[in-house]
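does this look right to u?? pyridoxal-5'-phosphate version
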Amino acid sequence: MQTLGTKAWPVLIVSDQIQKQSDEGAWLRELVGVLTDDFGCSVLFCSGYGDAHDLVYAREDLGTVIVDWESAELGRVHRKNDAIATGNSGERFVRYVRSRNARVPILILSDRSSVESLPNRALERVNGVIWKLTDTPRFNAGRIERSVAEYAGSVLPAFFQALVSYADEYNAAWHTPGHMGGQGFLQSPSGTAFHKFFGENMLRADLSISVPELGSLLDHSGVTGKAERFSAAAFGADRCYYVLNGTSTGNQIVWRSQVAPGEACILDRNCHKSMHHAMIATGAQPTYLQPVRNALGMIGPVDFRSVPAGASYAMAALTNSTYDGICYDAAYAAAKLGGASALHFDEAWFAYARFHPIYSGRYAMSLSDRRRLVFSTQSTHKLLTALSQASMIHVKFPADLAASPARAEDFHRRFNETYMMHGSTSPQYAMVASLEVASKMMADNGATALGDIMEEAIELRRKIAGIAAEEEAQGDWFFRVWQPEGVSRASTRDLIENPGAWILEPGAAWHGFPACGLPDPFCMLDPIKLTFLCPGVDSSGRWAERGVPAAIVTRFLGDHGVVCEKTDYYSWLLLNSLGTTKGKQGTLVAALFRFRELYARNAPLDEVFPDLAGAHPVSYQGVGLADHCQAMHQAIRQLELLPRMVAASKVLPVQALCPSDAYRAIVQGRVETVRLDSLDPTASPRTAAVMVAPYPPGIPLLMGGEILDASSAPIVDYLRAREDFERSFPGYGGDIHGVERGEPGSDGWRPYTLMVVRD
Ligand SMILES: Cc1ncc(COP(=O)(O)O)c(C=O)c1O
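got this back:
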């Protein structure tokens, strides 16, 4: 049996006749019997449009939708969508189904006598009409089954289809991987558990590169090449390359393919660590662009005024959007980086931008000026639906390559040399299929899916803003959302359709970013990235007497099943994506209320965080939640963690060595580990061997090869303040890439250490 045959795609019948003791009811029941028993289809029923609407909203596996036109009034289609507000219920329902899915077959079930009454507006959206009572149930069941089969055949994109077909053939495997279609796992209990957990299909689809039906990822041939070409078209690129080791590798492929040792380049300091690794791998000589920060430590756009005028660069790279959801006007940013021969936008978090008009002009592949190569690297797995590590590189050609297939092919041949250097000869085909399917999902109904996500994100924003306003009016407090002031007053539709509502106007109090010479439409806040604000300090740096540090709130949320993306000192980030549901939002709001209730009664930490209090009884047992928040708030203030973080992030240390030379010092053992508290940057400057990037927010403070001296002392000051903070609040240790913990002292504390180049 085929895994994804017609049975996997249920037929939805919307009719109130099915239960009735009438000719029509009997005819329908016979139709359903033949459909299920003889044709092997599965059937779902709804007797009203309300339920049918919910079902269409919730299920994307419907194979055909059948609407009984004579079932006089099947209730209201309860959808707040203007596009479907007119017409009778049947018409509105048909329009609703089409607004969700442009291609699922819709059949009208009608009485021949009412043919005249079928409105053209409905007929032009459906795929056919079934005449009740006139044709035999068997004949109609056959038509319906064909409709499901044809549609099911068109749902799967090429590679995924080939993979499913191959797995369905039950070939006897004599090739890698060694589990041979999962069979190998069944040789022991733990293997059997693995098999049961992941399921047979996943394992039968895990195949060797030697299966010719699936083409080759390294050669981009066969159905694999077809899948990449499909993704290129879907994402607006001239070429697309699938990468199975994340954007961490995608970034390196892009850079290694374009930049030679010693070449000058421009790099957003707000870059992922893989960009630093790309500097090491290429031997590039980077000039950094510093992003601005607000007093909460959030990272804004880079200040393009620091791009050296008149110079030429092999490549320039920007992070778009930033972690906090700031997205650039791509054309403006590209113009500011005019001296670079190639542009790279790291869009690890922004793969969806192409599929909703609100992001128009804000992503790399939207650039229409074909003067140079433009690359976009995207972690398809982060906010679309690919499996972890599945990423894409998109390439837009300059005009000469775009116009000449021979030159484009020449580019590809050279680029592919680097690509192959990073590609395994044993690709995981489920990842390839997930990249192709993620592209197909977006191409088919990306705008609808993103519209849904945006609607839910905006409703959550409004809900939180509403609660905060109500509570504050009664003299209480609540969490807030970081957003332009107008958002809580505008309509959802306006906020979804009008990017102007999300623009970062220069100097606006809500964002708190210092002026960086930006014209108006330059940057926009992404509606689906929600930064929550805690009481304690505002975006301009004004401190409140009482504070609720975000680390405590997100620890609480985590304990209650709400896992946040990022935690800063007084803010935390939640991402909305295709996997976000209303249920998750309800759980979040309920948990926030619960937190506030525990705070209000200063509930003991033994009750709120039993694990924390148990692990560190001296620090936390008997302490109340509100007191704990206040103690941490005061420590953050006294240690000046926020201003120190902002000051440290403004420093661009002198580069004693280029990143690749600093790396070579590590390889050759010309490095040593020193305690942070032993450093005296003014008296004895040292050169960092590795990048130092604290989480939050994961942005490097120091790159390998840069000097810690008097001018970069704010970096050491900030790290020391963090160390002091962690000593005072055990269990709240952050992650600092590049900072290791040394041997424990007599008090058990393991001091911060750094790797520096030996003098
Ligand atoms: C800006 C940026 N680029 C690249 C990456 C790496 O992506 P991946 O996890 O797909 O390797 C990340 C990961 O967080 C990132 O934030």
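Residues 159-204 form one domain. idk if thats expected tbh
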